[in-house]
Structure formats: C-alpha cells, structure tokens
Amino acid sequence: MTTEPAKIPAIEVENLTVSFGPRPALLNVSVTIDQGLLVGIIGPNGAGKSTLVKAILGFVKPDLGTVRLLGSSLDDAKGRLAYVPQRGAVDWDYPITVYEVAMMGRYPNIAWWKDPGRQDHEIVNQALEMVRMSDFKNRQIGGLSGGQQQRVFMARALAQGSDILLLDEPFAGVDAATERAILDVLERARATGRTLVVVHHDLATAAEYFDRLMLIKQRLFAYGTPRQVLNQDLLSEVYEGKLKVFSGMGKAEECHA
Amino acid sequence: MPDIIYSAFAAPLRETFFQKALIGGSIAAIVCSVVGCLVILRRMAFLGDALSHAMIAGVAGGYLFMKILFNTEAHAPAMLIGSLIAALVTVASIGFVSRVSRVKDDTAIGIMYTGVFAGGVVLVSVFRGYIHIDLMHFIMGDVLGVADSDLWVAAISAGIVLSIIILFFRQFQLTSFDPVMAASIGLPVALIDYALTTCVSLVVVSAVSMVGVILVVGLLITPAASAYLLSDRLDRMMILAAIFGVTSVIGGLYLSMWLDSSGGGAIMLFCSLQFIVILVIAPNYGMLARWMRLRNSLPQQLVEDVLVESSRFGKTVDLNQLQRKISHSKAAFTKALKGMSRNGLLEINDNKLTLTEAGSVEANRILRAHRLWEAYISHVGAASGSEVHHRAHELEHVNDVESVDYLDDLLGHPIYDPHGAVIPASDSHCSTGGECSLSYLREGMSAEIIDLPAEGSDSRLNKGTKVTIGPRRENQTEWIIFLQDGSKVALDHETADAVKVRITSISS
Ligand SMILES: Nc1ncnc2c1ncn2[C@@H]1O[C@H](COP(=O)(O)OP(=O)(O)OP(=O)(O)O)[C@@H](O)[C@H]1O
Ligand SMILES: [Mg+2]
C-alpha cells in the first residue's frame, strides 16, 4: 500500500452547512479524510450523501463552512479531483469507442491545438488496464454491459490523474460479479496512493469494502472504521430502527487495519 | 356605420365560396387540432410536416394511374387514395429505418420524406405533359376555391378520425404518456402508433387542399399548442384546441377578405397571432402569469425582517417606526405587509401593526434560529465581529425546528447569544402540557418529571416529582431546579437532556 506516510489530509470538511430551504441538507458536518483511504459514505435516502459529494466538488455553494483538498482551497485544487457520476446521463448510441471515452480524461491536460501525446496514450492504456477493459478498447460504448460501462467511466476518471476520486453509487444496479470487478478497480486505485470516496447503499457489504465509513443523515453521525461506525445504536438512530442486526461486522477489519 | 359592419362581416357570408371555405376550413381545423394534441405530446410535429410533403408523390401517382388506365383527368378519389398511400409508405419506411439501424427517428423522417417528396416532384415534372395539376396550388392551398368534393373528403375523414380518437381515447392517452407501461399491460403499442400516424395522414390529406403543404403542419400543431398552455387534461386540451382551430379559420378568412390575401396564409397568420396572445396571457403557463407570480412572491428575507423587528418592539408597532428599521423600499414593505396579513401573520389598524398568535410564533422561531446561528458561528469561529450578524441573517431562513434544536443542543442550550441578547425558548417544546427534555426549559417554568435515567441522577428526582426551573449557573452549563419543598438540585447538560418532563406552567 502507500509507502510514505501521508501527512496532509486528502479532504478536510469543516462545519459544512448546505441548505435548499428551511431544512438544511447538511448541517455542521466536519470530517477529515486521510490520503490513501477507500471511504464509503452511507446513510438513508435523502440523507445528503450526494449533496456532500457535490459540495466537495464545489458544485453547490455551502451556506457556511469550508472544504479543503490536499491542503489547498477548492479553487486552487481544481483538477486534483475526479468525479464519476451515476450512470445514465450520456447517449449510449453516441459514435465513440471505449478508448476515446477514457482519453477524454486527458483533455484538460492537452492544449487545444495539439493531439494527445505519447504520455497521454500511455496513461489511458494504463487506466484501461487497471479497470480491465483493455480488451474492449475499440468497442462502441453502447455495446457494453452496465458494469463495463461503469468501469469505462472509472478509467476516464483515473486517466485524469487526480489524487482524489469521488464516485456516486458505482455499485447501483450491478450484479455480484461486476460489483467485485468494480471493487477490484477501487482497491487497485487505492494501491496507487489515491483517495477514493464512494457513496454506497448496501450496509451488508460496507464493512468488507471500505477502510473508513462515514454515516450521515443531515449531520455526520459517525466517521471511523467500519467496526466503529456500524454499531447497532447509531444505525437504528439513523435508519430509525428499520434495520436488522449485521453479524460479522468486524471481520473485514483485520485485513485493512 | 352599420353599413361598414355589414360589408365587413355579413356580406362575405352571402358568398357561396366563403360559406364553403368556412365549413370546409372548420371541419379540417377541428380534426387537425384534435389529432395535433397527440402529435405535440408525442413530439411528432416534424412528422406532420413530413407527411404533407410526401403526399405530393401520392397525388401525382394517383393522377397518373387514373390517366393511364382510364384516361380520366384529375380523378379526385384516386389522388386522395394515392396521397394516403404515399403517407403510409413514408410512415412505414421511417419506422423501418429507425428500427433496423441506429439512425434516430427524426433523422429517419428527414431522409424518407424528402426522398418521397423528391420522387413526387420528379414524377410531376417528367409527366408534365400528362399531369395538369398546379404544384403551386398544392403547395399554397386554396381555401377560397374549395370544391364540393374537397368538402366531402374533409367531412368523411374528419368523421373517421374523430370516431377513432374518441373510441380509443384512453389507449392513445396511455401510449403517448407511458409507452412502456402500455406495452406491459398488453396494449398493442405499435398498432396504436400506426393508427395515430394514419389519422395524421388522413387529416393532413384532407386539409392540404385548403391551406397547402407548407401551412398544414401549423394547423396541426399551433391550436394544440395554444390549448396546451391553458389546460392540464388531455380531453379539455382537445376541446380547446378544436375551438382555437375554428376561430383561426373564421378569423383568418375574414382577414383574407379584408386584406384580399391568400386564404391559407391568413388563416395561419391568425392562428399564430392567437397563439402569441395566449402565450402572453395564459393564466398558469403564460408569460404575464409568470411575471405576476414573480412580482407577487414575497421576499422571504423581508417577511422575516418584518416579523422579527415587530416582535422586538413588543407585539404592536407603529408602521413608520417599523419601516425605518427595515432596509427595503416602501413599496416592497407595503406589499409584504399586505401579503402577510393575508396569510394571517399580522393585523393592521390605524397605522399600527399587531402580530397575530401565528405571527408571534413565527417571529419567535426565526429569532431563535437567528440567535442560535450567531452563537454557532462564533462557536466554530466561522466569522467574527459584525460579520457574525450578517452570516446569521443569511442563515436564519434555515430554521427547520429539528435542525435548530440540534444547534441548540450542540451549543449546550445557551440562554444568551454572543451579543448578550436572550435566545427565545423553543415554542414547539415549551408550551403548557408539552413534553420535552428538561434542558429546553427556562427559568421560572414548572414541570412534572415523566421519565429519567435509571441511574446516575439525584435520588430526590423521581417520576412524578414536580419541579420549578431556577437560574442557569456555571457559565450556563449547570441547570438548577427547585423541588416543591424548596430544596435545590443541580444537573449537568447530559442529565438535563435525559430527564423528560411534562410542562405544567411556562410563566413564573
Ligand atoms: N437542488 C436541490 N433543490 C432542493 N432540494 C434539494 C436539491 N438537492 C437535494 N435536495 C434535498 O436535499 C436532501 C439531500 O439530498 P441528496 O441528494 O444529497 O440525498 P442522498 O443522500 O444522495 O439520497 P439518495 O440516497 O436518495 O441518493 C434531500 O432532502 C433533497 O430533497
Ligand atoms: Mg444521492
């Protein structure tokens, strides 16, 4: 895993309040995420998970509070952050190949009068290799399964070369095998020292997948190791008691600790 | 004077051509508009345009067919059937192309209709020796020269189309709203689509002779779009559309008489103007209505300022005095007062403003939010000095009870904000008979304990113990309560939160 100790936190959120009306979507959220971690954001529907991601990206303006990325303010940190949105917003019949989609991640780094350089091609190839989509390079994106499409967009985010990746529900609507494949990509990305923040819905797998969990429902209820966060009292408070007990929660902890 | 009116309105009515134009035009306009409603809801406006153009090939084909086989000139039924066939062929080929390839619908329409149209144009020009039809007539239409046969055609196709739409109204409605669901309950969606496009072909065919190829699409969609701005139900939209279609024909025909212009052009001009008028004045979706809504919506900040300032003065304030406190224009201020009194927040008598019960509660809630936000902002150090007040002023609209209570708890239920002003107690908790944590109560309130932690609390406190709240000590972190025998108990924040009480009195 990461060799040198990372001192500057990847993401620092301080006293964040975001509102769209009388009831704030996020209230007094403060959290510090260290570099090189794979972090899951959990919480019920409407809890403000997507809003938190958007606030970190600078897409929504907070009423109060600050976000710092790798020690610098949001404006200075543009480009150090890549975002993988939920699937569906693009035209899948668009005449474009997997390789070209991944290359789009390099566009911010290529001057408009130039073609992608050798380095860009290398990075794109590496990214596709990392998501194990090299064999599909020349496929049109419509001819892929849902999970493969998701991985292509992850490759694009990786090709951006950002140190921090935000993913909004990458596991939504994919089968078990694809879920493993995506998780595998996340773990490989973490192994290169990147910090990944993932909105996740499935509590049953949360402990196994993530180094740290963030439990939110308007407020930050807990941030810590899965064992700390997935405690019955907290969960029944946040999910209003509509949850079964999860057994074997601490199991995954040993391997990441 | 009456003479002018007579010659402008009544005289044309005595002319047979005008009567025929009126009847034929109205029939065509009614069906066009009704079908048009489905067309615009399915976003198929382009299809109407395509079909009308494609028909020219059918007209030429029908003409040639009769001429060559039976040597009859301009056999109307044959030309009609020809144009119907051309329209249906176009529809079918559009469906085919978009199904078997990745080419999208609108592109397929563009390809197929221009192809068929071009075929018609070539046909007519190659056989110009045989075919004696005036392309210009076909393209521009001639509503003032409507023949009896045209009337019949219009009437019969209108009858067929209207019956189909009325009979299968629900099927059309569902397939245009949610085709997937329609298919899942077993409706033949493809068939219904074909029925709709056939209807479109029929009405286009019957209207083309009057308004021409180019304008027919306007008659199909413009009245329907006008109706769309006015109604939220498909059946009403269809009825309104039909009415707008007829008014366009009547208005347009008179216009053409007065201006001595082309009939079809005048009808569509009138139709478009009618749409623009409706666009402006429509009560819900019109521009005027939107503008009025924007104008009438009360600025939230102003409303909150009025509430809070008046409650600072006590419940009744002189209006002039109040206005000096508020940094909005006189007009906005007056409007806000009107709106607020309509909403039952305040009453105005003799230039004096009195907050109603609801108004005071609201004011209290906002003031509480404001002062707690001030305390929070200082607490986390997000701002300092006068900036604290400004930020809190912006944030006081974030005043949802639960969120504000969270801040209150986070800050240890403070009584004073950083400027030393009293933070109002929570109305939603502190009402007589209400149940809440003891920590929300303020000095002088009395209550009965209904629940308390099993261990760790003072042995003198039990369920049913009656207590009166005393002052807060130790930098507001210690709750002092008096028991009935006069003895005193001190509680920390955590215990005060855990002790649940029913309030018996809120005044000392
Ligand atoms: N643009 C907006 N305008 C108004 N309210 C919004 C807006 N975006 C989000 N909200 C509100 O903010 C709250 C949090 O929304 P958010 O999308 O962050 O939830 P979430 O945790 O991502 O939920 P889910 O699990 O359903 O995706 C919700 O109550 C939502 O209604
Ligand atoms: Mg979300």
Descriptive account of the structure:
The complex is a heterodimer of chains A (257) and B (508). In chain A, 31% of the residues lie in helices and 23% in strands. Chain A is an alpha/beta fold and 257 residues long. Chain A has a single domain, classed as Rossmann fold, CATH 3.40.50.300. In chain A, the strands form two sheets. Chain A has a six-stranded mixed sheet, with helices on both faces. Chain A has a four-stranded antiparallel sheet with strand order 2-1-4-5, with helices on one face. In chain A, a hairpin with a 2-residue loop joins strand 4 and strand 5. In chain A, helix 3 crosses helix 4. The radius of gyration of chain A is 18 Å and the shape is globular. The termini of chain A are close together. In chain A, 42% of the residues are buried. The C terminus of chain A is likely disordered. In chain B, strand 2 and strand 3 form a beta hairpin. Chain B has three domains: 289 residues, ABC transporter involved in vitamin B12 uptake, BtuC, CATH 1.10.3470; 56 residues, Arc Repressor Mutant, subunit A; 80 residues, SH3 type barrels, CATH 2.30.30. Chain B has 20 helices and nine strands. In chain B, helix 2 packs parallel to helix 7 and helix 14 packs across helix 17. Chain B is an alpha+beta fold. In chain B, 65% of the residues lie in helices and 9% in strands. The termini of chain B are far apart. The structure holds adenosine-5'-triphosphate and magnesium ion (MG). The site of adenosine-5'-triphosphate has 10 residues of chain A, from helix 1.
Helix-strand pattern of chain A, N to C? EEEHEEEHHHEHEHEEHHH
Number of domains of chain A: 1
CATH architecture of chain A: 3-Layer(aba) Sandwich
CATH-assigned homologous superfamily of chain A: P-loop containing nucleotide triphosphate hydrolases
The CATH topology of chain A: Rossmann fold
What's the order of the H and E elements of chain B? HHHHHHHHHHHHHHEHHEEHHHEEEEEHE
- Our measurement of the CA-to-CA distance between the termini of chain A, rounded to an integer number of angstroms, reads 12 Å
* Structural class based on helices, strands and sheet pairing of chain A: alpha/beta
What shape does the CA trace of chain A take? Answer: globular
